Automatic annotation (TrEMBL):
GO terms for biological process: defense response. The keyword ATP-binding applies. This is Disease resistance protein At3g15700. GO terms for molecular function: ADP binding; ATP binding. The keyword ATP-binding applies. Residues 158-327 form the NB-ARC domain. It comes from the Eukaryota. Pfam families: NB-ARC. InterPro entries: Apaf_helical, NB-ARC, P-loop_NTPase, Plant_NBS-LRR. Keywords: ATP-binding, Nucleotide-binding, Plant defense.
Length: 398
């Protein structure tokens, strides 16, 4: 009995002492393995962090100003710190290894292995559970308002559309700019230009890319590269067909490639996204939007620049009425609608979003409540968010 107790005690003592000692020795012997594992973890958290950061930027640069929950921002900041620490340690290992590729000093190997293991565990813990992408808050109806605006003919927009099409038809103009404040409808207008261009068959290719405040240059480069490749393939195919049919058609490269770049905040280097290469042997026309005239006229050297202005009161009301349907036959609702449309400051994006909130309500009280919130709020965007939340709450009660 006493012997069993002593063996049990001895095994525990050995476990408490040998285990930690072996682990400490392992840091030195397996430091290379620990650093390699850290490198894998560094890639993982880098990819996850990039995805979350992209979502954050997209949320914060949306026309109507969505918000991101603090825990998502904190996750992103911590991920960046962990990635930075890991990269620093990996770089230290490379310097310590020198040209021979291995770290000779056992103390240095121990420290690198121990730190690499510690950092790997920290990254692993941060990635599990995965980041909460659902914590981005997009008010219902606002985030997609620009793409879901009701089709409503407005004279000012129709006139601008015709001017752009006319400029595109001018061979002496290869860069066109459209500027206006956020929410005025630049993206919607350009989507109509893109649709018309594709249907017309006047262009050998039509490609559109979102630039935004923080452009993803690699994605834009890829789109341009794929476009250039398609044009070249089409040109080669045409040459083969011409030889086969013993007749010569107008060269494919004589037709222009239409490139639409939406939402420029500053000068965009065309060479950096691959357009300089296209300029050599492929004709192209460029249509760009920005909030700032100087970006288009001075920095991007557009030959023609158009100012997309806010809607006048009559067109604002027309757009509002088009979304809510026949509700404005009620004199009380029509009177409130006129005030609501004015409060949206002539911005189609806001008008359409607000109208969507009210389109299922026939209650003058609801409409007056919406007007009251807009009048009290220092921001139309914030007031709309409040109305969206109230609408969602009521729908849950139904």
């Amino acid at each position: 009995m006493a012997t069993d107790f002593l063996w049990s005690l001895a095994s525990k003592v050995i476990g408490y002492t040998v285990g930690p000692i072996a682990r400490q020795v392992g840091y030195a012997l397996l430091s290379e393995s620990y650093v390699n594992d850290l490198q894998d973890k560094c890639h993982q958290i880098g990819d996850a962090g990039q995805e979350i950061q992209h979502n954050i930027e997209e949320a914060l640069t949306t026309e109507v100003g969505n918000r991101v929950e603090p825990k998502v921002l904190r996750w992103s900041e911590t991920a960046a710190e962990l990635k930075g620490e890991a990269e620093e340690l990996i770089e230290r290992k490379k310097k310590a290894a020198g040209c021979c590729g291995c770290v000779a000093n056992p103390i240095t190997r121990y420290r690198l292995g121990r730190k690499a293991n510690h950092n790997s565990l920290a990254i692993q813990n941060h990635l599990a559970p995965p980041p909460l992408t659902a914590s981005f808050y997009f008010p219902e109806g606002i985030a997609t308002a620009s793409s879901s605006q009701s089709i409503c003919p407005l004279q000012s927009r129709d006139s601008m559309f015709e001017d752009i099409v006319k400029a595109l038809a001018d061979d002496s103009v290869n860069r066109i700019g459209v500027y206006g404040v956020g929410g005025v409808g630049k993206t919607t207008l350009l989507s109509q230009v893109e649709k018309q261009a594709r249907a017309s068959k006047e262009y050998v290719e039509v490609v559109a890319a979102l630039v935004s405040q923080n452009p993803e240059l690699k994605k834009i480069q890829q789109k341009i590269r794929e476009t250039i490749d398609r044009v070249k393939i089409k040109a080669q195919q045409q040459q083969k067909n011409d030889k086969k049919n013993d007749k010569e058609q107008e060269p494919m490269t004589k037709r222009a490639v239409l490139i639409i770049l939406d939402d420029l905040w500053k000068k965009l280097d065309l060479e950096e996204i691959g357009l300089r290469e296209m300029e050599g042997d492929i004709k192209f026309k460029l249509v760009m939007t920005s909030r700032y005239c100087r970006v288009l006229a001075d920095e991007m050297h557009c030959r023609q620049v158009f100012h997309l202005e806010k809607l006048k009161n009559d067109e604002a009301l027309k757009l509002f009425a088009n979304t809510v349907g026949n509700k404005l036959s009620d004199p009380l609702l029509k009177q409130t609608a006129e005030e609501l449309a004015k409060k949206c400051q002539g911005l189609p994006l806001l008008i359409d979003a607000l109208a969507k909130v009210l389109q299922n309500s026939d209650s003058p009280k609801d409409w007056e409540n919406a007007l009251e919130q807009l009048e009290k709020s220092d921001s139309v965007h914030k007031a709309l968010e409040g109305l969206m939340e109230e609408k969602a709450f009521r729908m849950k009660l139904c």
